[in-house]
Amino acid sequence: MVNRLKSYIIFTLFVFGLVFLGAGCTENESSKDSAKERSSWREGSQEISLKGSDTVLPLVQAEAEEFMNENPNKSVTVTGGGSGVGITALIDGEVDIATASREIKNEEVEYARANGINPVEHVIAYDGISVIVNPQNPVSELTLGQLRGIYNGNVTNWKEIGGEDRPIVAISRDSSSGTYEYFKEEVLLGDEFRPDALTQPATGVIIGEVSQNPNAVGYIGVAYLDESVKGLNLDGGNGSVPPTPENIISGAYPLSRPLYFYTNGEPSGLTKEFIDFVMSEKGQNLISEVGYFPINR
User: Fold this and answer.
1) Are residue 136 and residue 201 in the same domain, yes or no?
2) How would DSSP label each residue in 122-182?
3) Which letter, b or e, does each residue of 84-97 get, where b requires 16 or more Cβ atoms within 10 Å of its Cβ?
4) Where are the alpha helices (DSSP H) in the chain?
5) What is the largest distance, in Å, between two alpha-carbon atoms of the chain?
6) Signal peptide: which range, if any (predicted)?
7) pTM value?
8) Domain CATH number, residue 71
């Protein structure tokens, strides 16, 4: 009786072991299938969602509002959070379009493909990065070298670059932001941000901080510029250049960049319909009205 009971227990444990082994082997495949199923369901839906760059957010909100005015039976939901957040949401099958102010990274592409997602890039507009200071600050222009010095910590007082004897308070976006990534690559040229830089989760917070602090400096998308802060001219080696539409589109302004949509494969259904609207003459004119720069200008 005891031997039979032992045999039964051993057999039961063996069966459970096979079950758990099978579950472990299929976990990754289930994750891929789940992402594909969510993506497939979205293709036929009359609702789509976009998530990502705070820089792209005002543009996409305006496009979505106008699109839904023309198509009242269709829904486009838009949220921010940063380019990295949007790309991750696309990879996880949570959104139809990731919005980004930077190119997708190689490691993100690899991770996406490992999860059955094929990111496809769409350039929808152009933007410039404006360096902002408090309106009380007498500094009106910086070279890219001076700007790099401010953010890597080599320049710590405004008097070192033609301003008053005041400590510089450097404000930055956080690392989930495509603007952060772009600024680090184009301005810092591989340097790390100064350790005392104040990181903020959203562009609006940076504007608020700079507007209230005469010692502060920050960087934002040009479309966010308002009278509460002062945008600086930048000299990339060819003289002082203001962040005007003409200079950004021509590339004369040193911190100009494209803005992106990313989809899982070539878009179809409502996703394609919305992207086609953004790329249409009406959609591109709307980009100009919001304060960005159309690709066909």
Assistant:
1) yes
2) EEEEEEEEEEEE-TT----EEEHHHHHHHHHTS--BGGGGTS-S-B-EEEEE-TT-HHHHH
3) bbbbbbbbebbbbb
4) 2-43, 57-70, 83-91, 106-114, 144-152, 178-183, 203-212, 245-250, 269-279, 281-290
5) 95
6) none
7) 0.72
8) 3.40.190.10
CA 32: distance to chain centroid? 24
pLDDT value at residue 15: 41
Regarding whether 39 and 141 lie in a shared domain, the answer is no
Encode pLDDT of 185-194 as tens digits: 999 998 999 9
**Cα 239 to the chain's mean position, in Å?**
30
- Rounded Cα distance between 225 and 247, Å, is 16
Return the bridge partners of 220, or none.
130
Q: Looking at the 3D structure of the chain, how many domains does it have? A: 2
d(CA 186, CA 21): 48
Q: Are 141 and 235 in contact (CB under 8 A)?
A: yes
pLDDT digits 0-9 by tens, 264-275: 999 999 999 999
Residue 225 lies in a domain: yes
Mean pLDDT to the nearest integer, 103-121? 97
Alpha-carbon span 160 to 217, nearest angstrom? 14
Task: Provide the residue count of the chain.
Answer: 297
Domain contains 159: yes
Domain hosting 279: range is: 31-126+257-294
Residue 84 lies in a domain: yes
Claim to verify: residue 265 and residue 167 sit in the same structural domain: no
Dist. CA 18–CA 23, nearest whole Å: 9
Task: DSSP letter for 195, please.
Answer: T
Average pLDDT value for residue range 9-32: 45
Let me know whether 267 and 226 are in one domain.
Answer: no
Same domain, 265 and 122: yes
